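Morning run. Coffee first, then this:
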Amino acid sequence: MPLSLEEKVRLLSMVDVFEQLSREELEDLAHRASDTHLRQGEDLSTRQEGGGKLYAVKEGRVQLYVALPNDGEVTLSVVEEGSIFGEMALTGERLGEDVSARALVPSLVCTLKTEDVKQLIESNPRVGLAMVRMLSERLRDAEARLAELAHKQVPARLANLILKLSATEGIMTRDGIRIDTPYSHRQLGTMIGANREVVTRAMIGLREQGAVEVVGRRIHLRDHEALEREAEARPAARNLIT
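And here it is:
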């Protein structure tokens, strides 16, 4: 069922870079945007005609990834509800031809023409400043990931990823925090630069420590301090091979 204008405006107002827009500006943006509902595991078509596009995740969670020749893939980032991707289109670049977007959970993605977004930035510089802040945060995250790949083993990288996922999408239950997205070991591996088998061994280690429990492919945090200790572990350089 198509969304009402009121619902479109409400969801756009929750996107971080648009939250300071006026009602009138949000309505205008809503009229210009198109929405796509994605099932869990479904890819978004980002190779559209008619120039660059900017995407906003109104609901759900989207994985940006690159497929590898050996049927593997590397996750570049996970875009949370209320954030955008494809921002390089604002500089005249398109979302990389090799980069795909997949819904990790049922999601609603809004597509905007970059011409419309550029006009919005010109009339409301706060939107541009919000995008600069967002890009700076993503650059810091990318630098942190590179540092982890260089200095930490898979168990430490996995523990740190679980802590981050619990902070962004964890649900508090009577038994602690549950990460509600059913990540497979393969998906987790694409996020930390490791293959499925190594991630499985690392997860078994975390379970044996009592740090986590996996129920129905959903990770439950059992010992936050144990995860933090594992995440901070820095082995000798000769042990870094994954």
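The first helix runs from residue 5 to 13. Good start to the day.
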